[in-house]
Amino acid sequence: MHSDPGHDVAPGARHPRHRLLLATVVLGLLSTLSGCGSAPRRAPAASPAAVDVEPLIVRVEAPLATAANRPYRAAGREYVPDLSGRPYRRQGLASWYGSQYQGQRTASGEPFDLRRLSAAHPTLPIPSYARVTNLDNGAQIIVRINDRGPFRDDRIIDLSLAGARLLGFAERGTARVDVEALSTGEVRALAGRPAPIRAGR
């Protein structure tokens, strides 16, 4: 979902977190006016702890979004979405994005909503589902992949603010996580029900 200016991106994708220069300038101006600093990933309109979370109802998805699943280039690298259905599991850093991007279009074409349990991933199919576990506290959620990004070597997934809140790292900005794509069988087994949430220690 993120790219530096001047780079090609996936059709329909938005890439807010790599607009760091603009974000830094805006946050700097806000800090000057308010007299206090603000972390780059915090939602300026609300405290992360105050954000309501909408339950994620898992559903058997319609056909994959054509444009969002084409090979693309972002931040100087080539990415090829993996539509093979092979198991996917990785560990790395997760980050999040909040109200400064509320309503912006995701790669799937849907508007971003910070209250929903959604996420951006460079190569998982759009749409699809993934189980995300915070390795530091054991909290676990399921998110719907509907966007592309993050495009940094040290990040593997970008969660909505709601997801970061439930995993317990909204105030910190990043967390070590395990990301596992849900299989077709798991999605069918959960279809029509709220996705399970495991609280952290």
What does this entry look like structurally?
The structure is a single chain. Helices cover 14% and strands 23% of the residues. It is an alpha+beta fold and 201 residues long. The chain has one domain (16-190): RlpA-like domain (Barwin-like endoglucanases). The strands form two sheets. It has a six-stranded mixed β-barrel. The chain has a two-stranded antiparallel ribbon with strand order 1-2. β5 and β6 (140-147) form a beta hairpin. The longest helix is centred in the first third of the chain and has 15 residues, at 20-34. The radius of gyration is 16 Å and the shape is globular. Residues 1-45 have low confidence and may be disordered.
List the helices and strands and how they pair.
Blueprint: H1 20-34, E1 72-74, E2 77-79, E3 89-97, E4 118-120, E5 128-134, E6 140-147, E7 155-160, H2 161-167, E8 174-181, H3 184-190
Parallel strand pairs: 3-7, 4-6
Antiparallel strand pairs: 1-2, 3-8, 4-7, 5-6, 5-8
Average pLDDT over all residues: 80
Number of domains: 1
Radius of gyration: 16 Å
Largest sheet, described in full? 6 strands, mixed, barrel
Binned, the helix content reads: 10-25%
Shape verdict: globular
Order of helices and strands: HEEEEEEEHEH
Number of H/I helices = 3
At the fold tier of CATH, the topology name is Barwin-like endoglucanases
Structural class: alpha+beta
Provide the CATH architecture: Beta Barrel
CATH class: Mainly Beta
Query: How many beta-strand runs?
Result: 8
With strands numbered from the N-terminus, the spatial order across the biggest sheet is 3-7-4-6-5-8
Q: Tell me the name of the CATH homologous superfamily.
A: RlpA-like domain
> What is the percentage of strand-forming residues?
15-25%
pLDDT under 50 segments (min length 5)? 1-45
Distance between the termini: 31 Å
